[in-house]
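Researcher: I need the complex structure. Ligand is heme C. Inputs:
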Amino acid sequence: MRHKRVSALMAAVLAGATMVMATGALAGIANTRHNLSNTNNVADSNNVTDTADVCVFCHTPHGADITQTDNPPLWNKRLLTGATYQTYAQLNSASIDGEILAVGSISLACLSCHDGTQAMDNIINAPGSGGLDATGGGTNGRNFAWTGSPRVDAGGVGLLIGVANLGVDLRNDHPIGIEYCGGGFSGAGVGPCRDEDFRAPTRGAANSTLANTFWVDTPGNGTAGTRDKTDMALFTRTFTAGLGPSVECASCHDPHLEAGVSNGGAAGETFLRVSNAGSAVCLACHTK
Ligand code: HEC
Ligand code: HEC
Ligand code: HEC
Ligand code: HEC
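Model: Output:
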């Protein structure tokens, strides 16, 4: 009797473990609006019927776009040049301290869909053998068939429409390509910030592979001083004064993050690295 109970308990524990593993395998980008494949089952979103490949809409193992400086990783879409975009610098805000670079780095990757200028099935290396085309099929992409609720253009080539289409005028969006800290650090090394209204970032230890990597630890998530998924990522770019930490789209957003899934204690929403409840995203960087 007693034995039976123990083995029943063990079975329950094992079943629980299997469930956790199964959920783990399903969690992530597949359950988000960034799954543009025919495996997408997220309500109120769009996808194509042509392929079950999730990553291919953004990354390719071979033949990636390498035309830009600070190129996004293994990028599988045609990228526009930074000069295409109007930046926050052109707003001439009287209170801005930091230097704002032309749009580049990771932000170009997001904008290869979110500027609404080309079909989201613009794909350089299409799924399967022999599908390489450096133009990604041009503005209208690969002519995949789009289905789902109307977050893409009714004409159906697969352009993003609505609030998710930021356009090429980024003067009305939070600055990107902006050096963190109010224009970097005063004095040598990391911190203090030139503008004390910023939380000091962390820089990877000298001689480590993260030596030129910067991030802002979010309070209450992960381990302080360690680069966690829940930290605000800063992307190293070359400013007039030299290498520095830059705020880009993926500083605040992780494009792979499933909403509502525990991420080091916080829930991802609209691909935010931490929940923005209490404006936690803003307060991660701004001391206000
Ligand atoms: C909607 C676009 C999109 C899709 C789809 C996507 N990624 Fe990414 N991925 C990005 C962007 C943008 C970056 C760079 C920003 C960053 O580092 O988070 C990136 C970065 C990465 C990185 C390097 C940085 C890191 O976080 O480790 C890896 C590895 C990666 N992606 C793997 C994948 C895999 C595997 C898939 C498919 C299961 C996938 N991605 C699907 C947009 C995407
Ligand atoms: C392959 C095209 C593609 C790329 C690249 C891409 N996105 Fe998206 N994104 C989409 C689509 C499609 C949607 C769903 C449209 C909508 O929500 O209205 C979306 C939605 C979003 C949303 C809203 C999510 C919601 O629940 O409403 C955010 C935030 C977002 N993307 C951020 C990013 C960021 C940041 C990057 C780069 C790191 C990025 N995306 C790269 C296609 C893309
Ligand atoms: C400084 C932080 C930050 C940066 C940088 C940033 N975002 Fe966001 N973004 C947010 C927050 C916070 C929200 C959620 C706003 C809300 O809940 O209304 C958001 C929302 C969005 C949405 C969803 C809009 C909607 O209402 O459905 C999209 C799409 C998006 N961002 C794309 C981008 C892209 C593309 C970039 C780079 C060009 C970018 N973001 C840069 C913080 C940021
Ligand atoms: C990853 C760090 C980071 C996050 C997160 C962040 N910001 Fe910022 N923000 C900056 C930087 C850097 C600047 C440029 C400040 C400067 O150099 O003067 C800036 C500038 C601003 C400005 C001032 C622009 C000007 O003209 O002076 C406002 C307003 C602002 N952010 C609001 C927000 C809000 C609201 C949120 C949350 C939705 C947010 N920020 C999240 C880093 C961040």
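Model: Summary of the prediction. Residues 190 and 203 are 7 Å apart (CA to CA).
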